[in-house]
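Sequence of S-acyltransferase (Trapa natans).
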Amino acid sequence: MMDQISDRSRCLFPCLADSAQRSSLGLKASLVALHLVYAGILLLFDRDLIEKAKTVPWHTLLYLTLFGVTLIQYFITAGSSPGYVLNAISAINAADTLFGMAGASKYAASSKNGSVVVTVDSSQSGRSNSTSWSKVVMELYPPGTAIRAYTCGYCNIEQPPRAKHCHDCDKCVLQFDHHCVWLGTCIGKGNHCRFWWYICEETALCLWTVILYCLYLKTSITHTWWKDVIIIMLLITLCASLIFLLLLLLFHRCTFNHLFVIFSYPHFLLFYALYCQ
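Predicted 3D structure, token representation.
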């Protein structure tokens, strides 16, 4: 009976069949639950805040808007692609194929017009030859760099600068930053901007919530002690989260992987300054 229920649920919800996806969904549900708990406890305990919402509704409306926008941005970022190297290779190959088809159609049109002399522009010929992925990647590295130095040992493909293999996703990511467990995806070239906006919104929401918690403690510190204990414990975790988010904002321009590469290989400093900003 239980096996039938399990099989039926897997058919209705294919995402639950994979343990990794189940873990990712669980983390996302936990993060949403944390947001609801922090806001809900404050609304439940602080009667003055409810009265203020009636007299000054725009204040509460702004907070709820920021709350909703932050969660929406979270799901948008979690569902976005970080930009995989394999996708870039496919795009390069598609561009190469289209260029070849355009060249073939142009040659056929010249033949129909009775053209005898066929001229080939050297710049176009070089462009056709340079659209392969290997040559594109080689041009991004300093001359003389060995191909094995930027070939992924897991995917066996050439990695452009700042790309790295993610062991959680088992794929090479362009401009790899880190694998975010809470988002369930990597942060890379494709979604770094979305991630930055999410961190900004989350920081603003966290800061606003900390202020509301402090105002509650200031006005109700002697009313009910067990409520104060709960608020203080939540406030401590909020402050720790706020410090972490502020550090992320400060270092969002120079990511964890970039710092490791720069300080491990000093000769990449000039290359990083010229090509990676």
